Amino acid sequence: MALSFPFSASSFCLKSKTIHHIKPSPTLFPTLATKCLRSPIIMNKALVSTSVEGLTRRRANHHANLWDDDFIQSLPNLPYDAPYYRERADKLVGEVKGMFNAVGAADSSTENILKRLEMVDKVERLGIGRYFQVEIAEALDYVYRFWNESSKDLNIAALGLRILRLHRYPVSSDVLEKFKDKDGNFLCCIAESEEEINSILNLFRASLIDFPNEKTMDEAKSFTTVYLNQILQKTHTFGANLLQEITYNLEYGWRTNLSRLEARNYIDIYGEKSSWLKNMNNQKILHLAKLDFNIMQSLYRSELQMISRWWKDSKLCKLDFCHHRQIEYHFSGCAITVEPKHSAFRIALAKFSTLATCIDDIYDTYGTLDELELFTKAVKRWDSPSTVQLPEYLKIAYCALYDAINESAREADKIQGRDTLHYARKAWDDYLDSMLREAKWLATRHIPNFQTYLKNGIESSASLTATLQALLTLDKISENDLQKVDYPSRFNDLLGLTLRLRGDTRTFKTEADRGEVASSIACYMRDNPESSEEDALKCINFMLEEHLKELNLEYLKHDNVPICIKDFAYDMSRCFQVFYKERDGFSISSKDMRDHVKEILIDPIKM
Question: Which long-range contacts (C-beta less than 8 Å, at least 24 apart) are formed by 71-74?
Answer without folding.
Answer: 71/35, 71/36, 72/36, 72/304, 72/305, 72/308, 72/327, 73/305, 73/308, 73/309
